[in-house]
Amino acid sequence: MGLLFALSFCPVSAALFFGSLIPIAVEQESSVLMPTVYGVGTALPVVVFSIVIALGTRYVGTLFNKITAFECWARRVTGAVFALVGLYYCLVYLMGFDI
Question: d(Cα 15, Cα 1) in Å, to the nearest integer?
Answer without folding.
Answer: 21
